[in-house]
Amino acid sequence: MEDKADLEVLFKGYYRANEKAVETIWRDGQIIPDANVLLDLYRYSDDARDAFLNLLNNHSSRVWLPHQAALEYFQNRPSVINEQSKNYDATLNDINELYNSFNQKNRHPFLPPGLLREVEELFEKLNEHLENSKKSHIKRLNDDEIQGKITEIIGKRVGQPFASEDLKRLFEEGKARYQSKIPPGYEDAHKNENERNLVGQQRRYGDLIMWKQIIAYAKEHKTPVILITEDTKEDWWLKSAGRTLSARPELFKEFHDETGQEIQIYRTESFLHNATNYLSEKVSVDVIEEIKLIQSEPVFYEVVQRSPSFYDLSEYISTNFKKGDELPGERVIAEAINWNRSGVRENLVRLDTMGYVEIEHGKKTKLIENLPPVSLDMRGKNKK
Predict the structure, then answer these.
(1) Residue 186: which residues within 8 A CB-CB, separation 6 or more?
(2) Are 247 and 53 in contact (CB under 8 A)?
(3) Per its record, what are the GO molecular function terms (predicted)?
(4) Which of 9, 41, 324, 333, by CA, is between 20 and 30 Å from 203?
(5) In terms of pLDDT, which residue wins out, 307 or 242?
(6) Share of the chain above pLDDT 90, in %
């Protein structure tokens, strides 16, 4: 007897949803932000933050927050605020160093006093602006208008926590899933590995808890879902040769098998871009480009610390080229950093995916954004 089965059903996750299905998801689906998406709001400019929050507010009746995402947002909010405060300090330090170099008149005899004073006034304005911004940012630890806006949008549309017994069963399931590398969450297998209490286990299996809460909600309410996440690990995304191809096919299939519904998974920049098409929202190109760069920086440093070849290429580009420059060919770069051409090609594709270079067939690769700074202590130890 010959077995017959539908290829698209058996391997659903590997097929993109057709345009009609995507339109339906955007029209009817629940919009679900992950905790990392909400935490990134503290890293955005005012314009980018307002654009994202206004969009969510325009569709607030369709915004839902899993309990696990809310928990992680509140747990990590103070550390993210403090982290941004340190970034203000670093920027102020850089500006002061530059100011001091201008302020030594013997170094710049070619600058007339009037022009030097204009430069000094500019530095003073920059310092004042940054100091005020830093104070406003630190105030958010106790008086947080971003948290207030999130609360207004979410309202009572937040999920209940799983019961303790349900969590314990999920931890056992998670242990088996992680060992078999079933997404999501298995990249966190070593997180809080020695903590056997409920809190430690909940952190280790946080991605899986949120995923199961989303599935349970979609199943109960018979609704498709738009999930926005800034988790970039391979237990969420299918990657090849440095490029992110799509969310993991296993996630699409599990969601459909469990709920009978469809899901679309986006990073914030892609969500905003698609919202301009499917929701007729107006989001400026500048906002989308800002968020794209903010998204790429953590990924950039993750790869720098993991891959020596990527570090060497990044250090070479940062040292020798600036935004707008055309890069030499792969052979020249390979000789300069002592890596083979295939490794150079793969890492250039990674930089293209992150939005730092532009690769066009038949043309020279162009540096479209300056790379984040790197230092030797970041260089990965594994040769790849």
Answers:
(1) 177, 178, 235
(2) no
(3) DNA binding; DNA-binding transcription factor activity
(4) 41
(5) 307
(6) 51
